[in-house]
Each structure stands twice: as C-alpha cells, then as structure tokens.
Design goal:
By secondary structure, this protein is α/β, with parallel strands linked by helices. The chain contains 10 helices and 9 strands. Helix 3 packs parallel to helix 4.
Length: 241
C-alpha cells in the first residue's frame, strides 16, 4: 500500500499526464477504452438489464473514471432519463463533460463529500446507483458511510461491480507471497534486486467476499443477486432493507 492515497491535485495531474492523448476526441477515447477494457462490456450489458428489469431511468455512477461505460449506458436509457457520472478526478470530469455532453457530470470525493448534496444537483432523484469497479477504493468506514447515504436519499437499488473482491484463501496466499518476496535474504538467494522503500500509491482494498457482504449489511442493504466474472471478480445487486 506504499505511499498513501493520492490527493485530488496529485491525481488530476498524474491522470492528465497519462491520459491527455486518449482524450483527443470522443472517438479516440472510446477506442482506447474498449481496447484496454473490452472485458468490462459484460458489466455494461448487465447494468442495462438491471435498469430495464426495474424500469430505472435515472442512474448515478460513482467513480466513473473516463465515463465511457456511462456514455453507452446513457444511450440505452429512454428520455427523459439521465446518467449522472461522478468521479474524484477533476480532469476526467472536465473532459467527460466536453466529449460526452449527454451526461450529467460532477466531481465527487468518497472521503469528503456527501451524497445528499450530490443528489441535490438532480431535478429528480436517481433510482439506481452503479459502481463500475470503484467501491474498492474506500476503507470500511467510508464504504459504509457512502452506501448508507445512498439508501438515506431514497435510491432503491445499487449495482456494485467490485474490483477488489477475492477469497480468504487467496488473500492468505497473496499475503504470504508478498511477505516472503519482500525479505532481503530471500531476494538475495533468488538473485532478485532489493525492493525500493517507496512502492507506489495506494489504489484500493482487497476484501474477502464475506467481508464485503458484511459492509453491505452494515449500511442497510440486502443482496438480491450475486454474479462472478462480469469483467470484475464479484458483482452484487443490492436493494434497500
């Protein structure tokens, strides 16, 4: 977990340096995104199905990133419905508003911002919230806070495509491998270079699926459907208790 979480300013600067060429036009961005993330199209199709099944036409996406999936989702939603795409990174949000003017957009920081104030920007409250792989960046307290706030503002359903889900066995294996791989003596015996003191910024939390279920319950949600391998290791459809 290395050097701590990005500040908003660090993140916006780093993202602009890395992604500026990809945001040259709508076509360029969509092509780049699909080349790198084609496995996530299954999650898009599933989100559209859930929206259709529950007649949801006002969708809030939290941690939307480049907003490409949200743009496709917008095209599937009947008027006067909307997709409200939000992200921590101001550069992503600014470029999304330029390239995808059909979307409603806003910055939103899980740690600092409030869902009630976010939803107040909509004339009609959302009837579905979606996390396309973004919920794993939150620690337990922030996770429960945001999911509870979504319930409190009256959103009846959430789809969480969870990027950090794993099993307890896999977590133990990974922790053991990391522990031994970091030991100088073992690295010398394996003729590997020493690891640097700084190992990069923190990006998200790996959690056992049972732990994720407990967080949902603590925030007042019950699971109505669970699926594996829709471009993410675990997907849950939640409804308010």
């Amino acid at each position: 977990m290395g050097g701590g979480q990005f500040t908003a300013e660090e993140h916006a600067y780093a993202v602009e340096q890395e992604f500026a060429a990809q945001f040259a036009s709508q076509q360029v961005l969509v092509q780049h995104y699909l080349n790198d993330n084609n496995k996530k199209l299954g999650s898009l199709g599933f989100a559209i199905k859930v929206a259709y099944d529950h007649q949801a036409t006002r969708i809030l996406s939290l941690g939307a990133g480049q907003c490409v999936l949200e743009w496709f989702l917008q095209m599937a939603i009947a008027e006067p419905g909307f997709v409200f795409a939000t992200d921590f990174d101001a550069y992503f949000v600014r470029k999304a508003s330029e390239l995808f003017p059909e979307l409603k957009t806003s910055t939103f920081d899980f740690a600092r911002d409030n869902v009630e104030e976010l939803v107040a920007q909509c004339e009609v409250p959302p009837d579905l919230a979606v996390f396309f792989g973004s919920a794993y960046v939150m620690d337990d307290a922030t996770f429960v806070k945001i999911f509870a706030q979504l319930r409190e503002v009256g959103i009846p359903r959430i789809i969480d495509f969870h990027a950090g889900a794993t099993t307890l066995r896999r977590m133990c294996i990974n922790a053991t491998l990391v522990y031994f791989a970091s030991k100088p003596t073992i690295r010398r015996l394996a003729h590997k270079p020493m690891l640097p003191a700084y190992r990069g910024k923190f990006h998200g939390y790996e959690r056992d699926i049972r732990a994720i279920r407990k967080l949902y319950a603590a925030a007042g949600w019950q699971i109505s459907e669970e699926i594996r391998n829709l471009g993410y290791p675990y997907t849950a459809v939640l409804q308010a208790k």
